[in-house]
Amino acid sequence: MLIEPLSKGEQQILSILVKERRELPIEKIAEITQLPQSSVSSFIELLKNRGIINIIEYEVSRAKTTDEGKLYISKLPEEILINILLEKGGLADITEIENAMGKEIANIALGWAKRRGWVEVIKEGTKTLVRFVGYESLNEHRSLLAKYLNEDEVPKDLENNEVFKELVRRKLITVYRKKIKFVKLAIPIEKAEEILRLGEGISRLTREVIVKDLWKTSIIKPYNLSALPPTRYGGKKHFFKEFVKMIKEVMESLGFEEVGDDYIIPELWNFDILFQAQDHPSRDIHDILLVEGSANIDVFRDVVERVKNVHEYGGSSGSIGWRYQWSYSKASRLILRSHTTAVTARALIGRNPPARLYVIARVFRRDNPDARHSPEFTNFDGVIMEKDFTFRKLLGLLTQILRYLGIEKLKFKPSYFPFTEPSVEGYGYVPGYGWIEIFGAGMFRPEVLEILGVKYPVGAWGMGVERIAMITYGINDIRLIFANDVDYMRKFPTIKVLVSGVRCP
Predict the structure, then answer these.
(1) Which of 11, 57, 186, 211 is deepest in the core (most CB within 10 A)?
(2) Do residues 221 and 5 lie in contact, with contact meaning Cβ atoms separated by under 8 Å?
(3) Same topology for domains 77-137 and 240-264+340-504, yes or no?
């Protein structure tokens, strides 16, 4: 290897590696040198190109105590429960415990105390009593919660620790995997020390270097013509925000008008106007998010009357309805909207054809996050009312919209929805993942048309915008769309849409 002087920054990093005599993460080197991590990365790349160091990438576990975990650093819920029992002589009514701790925390405490064998629950007539059985310290639990107040690496042996695993299961500590780059010497220590003794070389021929004849007494560093300049990233908006804007431009180029509504709405708009039965499973508390209170729907008397008639006996739509007594109070319950068809359908009331309406907005459901699902996501809903509109035209329109958005591989499948007939599901193909459902669509049923006061055919659809983005960008996990990873976001191109609807980078 050719020995030559290094720049000041390269010398700093090399001297740290010589002093420490072990591999170090780039973040640690930046901390020691007090240099920006971007500068440290550039110097490290130069040293690597000279064959002086190697860069190794490890995947490590990182952990952090959650907000809930921070509440329990001094005492976990089950420990608080034991204290209450001991204060009451070892036996207490469960109502007293709930009053002291709050019902939710009391349930958590009782569950874990029973699991540990600390308490037993006794029934005495109408009373439920909790009796103290035993107790052992949870010092290790509290110690780990305190240890990870600030995010830190998880040692390999701790990953299999039962107490640590329990805290993770209880969501008191959150764990995630992170890739960290480490730097280590690729040459012997003696060779590195020899390079450091050469001192700093001249990397730029300035006026001072020439006038003072410094070039005669100092070593001039050779130019590396293959070295790339530092990467500079221009600012840009988040790609998903730009994607939503692109959809809006496509819809407006097709003559659609954007409409909107509140996040919190009565069930009347979310379900009842769409002829969704009040005992339908999707209206259960396991699927929707209820908000405390109820709405005054008396101000929509005409709509309420039509809803009641159609639900109970079909009104004049030709249907027999659901054959039950429609509940005003259930229709008044407030919820976080679960779909935006509630918005577009409501916006149709009082309109005459032609009407082309769409909305792109957030909706909320009780869903467990995974590669395809999220409890909060963006819905893209649309309705189109025309005197001669047909199901075939609806499928053609949807195909046209999705092709503008870059989705070429598309297929339809017959389906069922409470408020459309005929109904269809649409699937798009994600490379490396497979077919994924992206929308439901259909023609509004006669019952829905009567409730809305509409006398003409209406085609409707609802799409998950995140799922469309997954197909357009080839993303195989919906959570990556909102990942807090700048490098990941930078790889997405800026997309523009021409007025004609033609997509271009």
Answers:
(1) 11
(2) yes
(3) no
pTM for this entry: 0.55
> Using alpha carbons only, how large is the chain's radius of gyration in Å?
32
Token couple for 66: 């959650």
Q: Report the alpha-carbon distance of residue 196 to residue 6 in Å, rounded.
A: 8
- Percent of all residues in the chain with a pLDDT value above 90, rounded to a whole number: 46
CB 214 within 8 A of CB 208: yes
Query: Residue 96, exposed/middle/buried by CB under 10 A (0-12, 13-18, 19+)?
Result: middle
- Side-chain-side CA neighbours of 458 within 13 Å: the count stands at 34
Pairing of strands 257-258, 410-417: unpaired
For the stretch 433-456, pLDDT in tens is 788 888 999 999 999 999 999 999
**What does residue 353 show for φ and ψ, rounded to 5 degrees?**
-70, 155
Query: Which ranges in 378-497 belong to alpha helices (H)?
Result: 391-404, 446-452, 465-473, 486-490
Give me the residues paired with residue 442 across strands: 423, 460
What six digits make up the tokens of 121? Answer: 């629950």
- CATH of 77-137, picked from 3.30.420.40, 3.40.50.300, 1.10.10.10, 1.10.600.10, is 1.10.10.10
Q: What is the average pLDDT across 44-62?
A: 86
Q: Where are the domains of the chain?
A: 77-137, 240-264+340-504
Per the document, the length of the chain is 505
Burial class of residue 85 (count of CB atoms within 10 Å of its CB; 0-12, 13-18, 19+):
buried
Comparing CA positions, the residue from 136, 121, 127 lying closest to residue 78 is 136
Alpha helices in 256-388 (DSSP H): 267-270, 301-313, 328-332, 341-348
Given a contact cutoff of 8 angstroms between Cβ atoms, the answer to whether 61 and 175 are in contact is yes
Strand-pairing partners, residue 383, are: 357, 460
pLDDT, tens digit (0-9, with 9 covering 90-100), for 249-284:
999 999 999 999 999 999 999 999 999 999 888 887
Specify the amino acid at residue 405.
L
pLDDT band at 226 (very low <50, low <70, confident <90, very high): confident
Q: Is the dihedral of CA 237, 243, 248, 253 positive or negative?
A: positive
d(CA 458, CA 130): 60
- 273 in Cβ contact with 347 (< 8 Å): no
Q: Containing H/E element for 71? A: helix 67-71
